[in-house]
């Protein structure tokens, strides 16, 4: 949440004035040090960098990407990358690779890369944010998981895992204490409702036939104009023609059946 003065700045002309950058950049540093997050402010900085390219600071853009990285599963990271000119992308190779690991749910690989990425240390609370995201993914995709596997996915020690289990309302299996139940929702198949077939009346069928026949005649008129080596008009013409012929046969059969029924009544 932005301070009131920043909210007022962003809601007015200040959002597009270069003089606003120092204050916005200062608030980004506050986000990095205090663990807060404001996507609107960060996007405003990137927008001003696009409007005033000479003001671009690589370290500021990197800080914005680091904060967006911790916002998964939201699409903030991609949103911010789209606002950064491509010529700077190589400078953020490490951050981009980390984001890719999270996006593809390669969590063990992420932790291995994170251990070698020093820039993460400038972000307060980054580890807890990533663990929260991973725990959410596990809860959404699994019903249960072994504790040793969960320790690896979250890159935490046993005491921290016990604390997390309690915080998220998970439970250990009564049959096997090494199994953690992370999702107790029931999965039931939806009942399939079979709709009854709708039969057309003779009048409806006749109207359909007349419309199809009119379409066939229209294609006949257009064919000499469009058929010079073009496949689609020929196909369309043949399709409409075959439909019309089929409708003709079925209409004759229906009328014949109706006539027979009338004669039997007499």
Mean pLDDT: 82
Low-pLDDT stretches are 222-240
- From the N-terminal CA to the C-terminal CA, the straight-line distance is 85 Å
Q: What series of H and E elements makes up the topology?
A: HHHHHHHHEHHEEHH
Instruction: Give me the count of strands.
Output: 3
Helix content: 55-70%
Oligomer: single chain
| Cα Rg | 33 Å
Trace the largest sheet across and list its strands.
Answer: 1-3-2
Discrete helix count: 12
**β-sheet strand percentage:** under 5%
Q: How would the global form be characterised?
A: flat
Structural class: mainly alpha
Largest sheet: 3 strands, antiparallel
Summarize the structure.
This protein is mostly helical and 266 residues long. It has helices at 4-10, 21-34, 39-51, 58-69, 76-81, 93-103, 107-114, 126-141, 147-154, 158-168, 202-226, 231-265; strands at residues 144-146, 171-172, 179-181.
Structure characterization notes:
- With 266 residues, the chain is mostly helical.
- It is 62% helix and 3% strand.
- The protein has twelve helices and three strands.
- Strands 1-3-2 form a three-stranded antiparallel beta sheet.
- Helix 2 runs antiparallel to helix 3 (39-51), helix 2 (21-34) crosses helix 4 and helix 11 runs antiparallel to helix 12.
- The radius of gyration is 33 Å and the shape is flat.
- The termini are far apart.
């Amino acid at each position: 949440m932005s301070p009131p003065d920043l909210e007022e700045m962003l809601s007015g002309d200040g959002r597009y004035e270069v003089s606003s950058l120092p204050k916005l950049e200062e608030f980004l540093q506050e986000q990095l040090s205090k663990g807060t997050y404001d996507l609107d402010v960060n996007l405003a900085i990137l927008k001003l960098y696009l409007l005033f390219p000479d003001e671009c600071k690589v370290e500021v853009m990197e800080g914005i990407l680091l904060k967006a990285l911790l916002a998964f599963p939201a699409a903030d990271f991609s949103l911010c990358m789209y606002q950064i000119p491509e010529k700077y992308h190589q400078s953020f190779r490490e951050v981009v690779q980390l984001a890719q690991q999270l996006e593809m749910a390669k969590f063990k690989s992420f932790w291995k890369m994170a251990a070698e990425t020093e820039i993460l240390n400038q972000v307060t609370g980054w580890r807890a944010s990533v663990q929260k995201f991973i725990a959410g993914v596990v809860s959404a995709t699994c019903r249960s998981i072994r504790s040793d596997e969960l320790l690896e996915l979250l890159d935490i020690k046993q005491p921290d895992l016990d604390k997390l289990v309690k915080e998220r309302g998970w439970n250990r299996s009564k049959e096997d204490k090494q199994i953690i139940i992370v999702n107790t929702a029931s999965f039931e198949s939806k009942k399939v409702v079979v709709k009854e077939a709708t039969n057309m009346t003779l009048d409806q069928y006749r109207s359909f036939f007349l419309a199809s026949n009119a379409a066939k005649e229209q294609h006949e008129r257009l064919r000499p104009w469009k058929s010079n080596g073009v496949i689609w008009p020929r196909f369309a013409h043949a399709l409409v023609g075959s439909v019309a012929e089929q409708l003709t046969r079925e209409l004759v059969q229906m009328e014949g059946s109706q006539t027979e029924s009338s004669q039997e009544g007499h």
